[in-house]
Amino acid sequence: MKTDLSHNKSWRGPLVALLSIALLASNAFGQQAAPASALTATERELSASVKVETIKEVTAALSADEMQGRGTAQPGGDKAATYLADRFSKLGLKPLGDKSSYLQGIKFKSTEFLPETSFKVGDDALKFGSDFVVAPPLTGDENASGNLVFVAYGLVSSTPQRNDLAGVDVRGKMVVMIEGPPKYVDKAAWKKADAQINIMVELVKQGAAGLIFISNGTEEHPYSEVSDYLTRRSVEPADNEEWPAFLPPFLMVSNQTAEKLFAASGVTLAQALVEAEKDNFKPINLKQTAKIVVRIKKGKGTGSNVVGLLEGSDPKLKSEAVVFTAHYDAFGVAADNRIYHGAADNALGVAEMLAVAEALTKATARPRRSIIFLAVTGEEYGLHGSEYWVKNPTWNIKQVAADINLDGMGTEVYGPVKTLVGFGPSIQTSARYLTTWPPPAA
Fold first, then answer.
1. Which residue has the higher pLDDT, 50 or 16?
2. Which of 72, 179, 315, 372 is most buried as measured by Cβ atoms within 10 A of its Cβ?
């Protein structure tokens, strides 16, 4: 994917930055939120100082090929962290990382699937990614085989009254099942009861050799989206506990693969899905064997948050801080050497943060509270960098007044931003800059 900024209208880039300054003005400068028609001189100065050129420059630099997708604990991620630390230094921000540097190191462990990972149904060898994916948790290399049996949702309950396992012993079997509740069961109630987890635990306890999930068309995410994500390298903190080795492999399969699972049973996939919605469902012997081989490569590495400080001007209030956050990581380099450039998610958000930092460091009037600029890593794999900073803060966490997070994929990529919403304290500020920064004519 080439980096192409031409689709971003010139006003979209700075809009989130301007909105952030609008909220910042009421917090950091100790002022009350003003109506749209009453911008202060400081706000006008700050909004005029946010440079579209900076946003374009930083977005292009971070999403360029040489950054290799800014993967967490990969060389491209290290290069991006060094680039951001240099930008912080040139802006005159004080280092707020480890050992008087801008970098806060985090130890990670990673997992990648090897080409030997395979799934065979009868004599049909299926393709990893397009036909099937291995779902977490991953316990290591695995070999599993057994006869295929379809158990609908695997549900055994009194309300609704049904037993999807009636008359079948799943020990040593490859259990084919549908993810999620039957169509007549409330999804919220199913989720609240942890029904899916409990069903999986029960099947594991009964000795299932593997669980293979198929779709009934009600999932929030299509197989293509799930496959794209689950075939990527995964990353987690190095001190996370390992999953128990006794867990069997869990697979998710495409609709085409699901049809192949039923090919020898005398029942089509469509017919089986109809039967699965009935309370009197009976397990279906699919009359085929399946073999699963999982081979993974484990690694270790270090990633870094990048942290800089603009000290406040008020002798008392400067002990409090407003934090700007944006994750700089993307998915790095895939096993097939494909680069996930992550221009919108989230080179753009980091660029906006740097544009705000640039405006504030050059402003005539400094904020009364201190401002922390925190570019975090590991977001794509579970907000790991943010969590690490909160647990290992380089500033008194009790003295953080607010956090303003910038993420391009969730904001102006889809259209103009009109509202900022505060989580935690109920804070909401309208986009009063829309009156002074209108979208240009198409």
1. 50
2. 72
| pTM of full prediction above 0.90 | no
pLDDT classification of 332: cutoffs 50, 70, 90: very high
SS (H, E, C) the chain: CCCCCCCCCCCHHHHHHHHHHHHHHHHHCCCCCCCCCCCCHHHHHHHHHCCHHHHHHHHHHHCCHHHHHHECCCHHHHHHHHHHHHHHHHHCCEECCHHHCCEEEEEEEEEEECCCCEEEECCEEECECCCEEEECCCCCCEEEEEEEEECCCCCEEECCEEECCCCCCCCCCEEEEECCCCCCCCHHHHHHCCHHHHHHHHHHHCCCCEEEEECCCCCCCCHHHHHHHHCCCEEEECCCCCCCCCCCCEEEECHHHHHHHCCCCCCCHHHHHHHHCCCCCCCEEEEEEEEEEECEEEEEEEEEEEEEEECCCCCCHHHCEEEEEEECCECEECCCCCEECCHHHHHHHHHHHHHHHHHHHCCCCCCCCEEEEEEECCHHHCCHHHHHHHHCCCCCHHHEEEEEECCHHHCCCCCCCCEEEECCCCEEEECHHHHCCCCCCC
Average pLDDT over residues 127-132: 96
pLDDT(68) > 90:
yes
Can you give the pLDDT at residue 170?
Answer: 96
Q: How confident is the model at residue 341 (pLDDT cuts 50, 70, 90)?
A: very high
